[in-house]
Amino acid sequence: MKSGSEFREKNTTFSGIEKTTLPTPTEIVTETAASSTYNYTVTVVNSGGNKYALNGEVAPELTLLRGNTYVFDVSDSSNSGHPLRFKDSSGASFTTSVIVNGTPGQAGATVSITLPISAAHQPARYYCTVHGNGMGNTINTMVDTTEFAVTVVNDGTGNKYVISGINAPTL
């Protein structure tokens, strides 16, 4: 469990195992990481034709976490004439929570996307609107949630947490 995770019991909020009030036994707790922003530097390279290179890797398949924001810096001059965008699984343009700033190849140009939490509609590919799918690759999305069972037991020396079957785990 990450530092700062919280358990809520009735109207009492406490963090970690430092407090004396413990959650009820066999409580199911869902911990969701706070949303984060991740940055990619995008260049266009010739690798059997023009392809996007993200942080130096040529046309990688992406695995992105739902709820997070991804900023693609397309300011490198090699991006001129290669607008980076997203498609959904049906091949239609994916524009949900996509923000385009500036012109590819110009200083400060970025394309940002905040992935929806819902699995219903997700981006499935990044591509060039001028040259097609061949410049990009697929996008897989994952939920950034961990579920685990928390039980409170007394081993004779005091109350202990048992998290997913591990007695007194290191938190």
Task: Give a quick rundown of the structure.
With 171 residues, the protein is mostly beta strands. It has strands spanning 6-9, 12-15, 27-32, 37-46, 50-54, 57-58, 62-65, 69-73, 84-87, 98-101, 110-114, 125-128, 132-142, 145-154, 159-163, 166-167.
Summarize the structure in words.
This protein has 171 residues and is an all-beta fold. Helix content is 0%, strand content 50%. It has strands at 6-9, 12-15, 27-32, 37-46, 50-54, 57-58, 62-65, 69-73, 84-87, 98-101, 110-114, 125-128, 132-142, 145-154, 159-163, 166-167. Strand 14 and strand 15 form a beta hairpin.
Provide key terms for this protein.
0% helix, mainly beta
Which class best fits the helix and strand makeup? mainly beta
Total helical segments:
0
Strand order of the largest sheet: 6-5-4-8-11-10
Count every beta strand, where a strand is a DSSP E run of 2 or more residues: 16
Radius of gyration: 22 Å
Regarding quaternary structure, what we see is: single chain
Q: Can you tell me the overall shape? A: elongated
Residues in helices, as a percent range: under 10%
The unreliable regions are 1-33
Order of helices and strands: EEEEEEEEEEEEEEEE
The major pleated sheet works out as:
6 strands, mixed
Provide mean pLDDT, rounded. Answer: 80
What's the layout of helices and strands?
Layout: E1 6-9, E2 12-15, E3 27-32, E4 37-46, E5 50-54, E6 57-58, E7 62-65, E8 69-73, E9 84-87, E10 98-101, E11 110-114, E12 125-128, E13 132-142, E14 145-154, E15 159-163, E16 166-167
Parallel strand pairs: 4-8, 7-13
Antiparallel strand pairs: 1-2, 3-14, 4-5, 5-6, 8-11, 9-12, 10-11, 12-13, 14-15, 15-16
